[in-house]
Design goal:
With 159 residues, the protein is an all-alpha fold. 82% of the residues lie in helices and 0% in strands. It is built from 4 helices and no strands. The protein starts with a helix and ends in an 18-residue tail after the last helix. 1% of the residues are buried. It is found in: Endosome membrane. Its main location: membrane.
Length: 159
């Protein structure tokens, strides 16, 4: 708002400068040199005001840019703060000791699975093979009891 007010002020001063320059020419034509000189001094003062106004506008625009950039920086800092809090909470949930324990358990489980895979892949010893065959023979030689067959005739189909 201040910038816009200063721009309006600049326009008024510029219009006054043009009028005073024209008036100073007219006064010189009429031979009123003292009055023209006084008017040119006033015009010079207004030109200095115009320069000061331009500097103030530049300062205001710079300040607006600084404020906008600071707002962006604040959003970035707030984002970093939230991210840092999230990381802190995650670190509380998962301590280094907990991660090391999980990794150790995972390595143990992988090693155990590798041993099972070796056994199933045929790396059994000859004694293991003999014991397995004996167990198979014992199972196949067991007498299996079957249920009794009914002696009653089956019912006839009803059409």
């Amino acid at each position: 708002q201040q910038r816009d007010k200063l721009r309006q002020y600049q326009k008024r001063i510029s219009l006054n400068l043009e009028r005073e320059r024209a008036l100073a020419r007219q006064l010189l034509k009429e031979g009123r040199k003292e009055k023209a000189l006084l008017l040119l001094k006033k015009k010079r003062y207004q030109e200095q005001l115009l320069d000061k106004t331009e500097n103030q506008i530049s300062n205001l625009e710079r300040m607006v840019q600084d404020i906008e950039f600071t707002q962006i920086e604040m959003k970035v800092i707030e984002g970093l703060k939230i991210g840092n809090e999230c990381l802190h909470k995650m670190h509380q949930v998962m301590s280094i000791e907990e991660v090391e324990r999980i990794i150790g358990e995972t390595q143990d489980a992988v090693e155990y699975q590798r041993q099972i895979d070796e056994i199933l892949a045929g790396s059994l010893t000859e004694e293991d093979e003999d014991a397995i065959l004996e167990e198979l023979n014992a199972i196949t030689q067991e007498q299996v009891e079957l249920p009794e067959v009914p002696s009653e005739p089956l019912p006839e189909k009803i059409p």
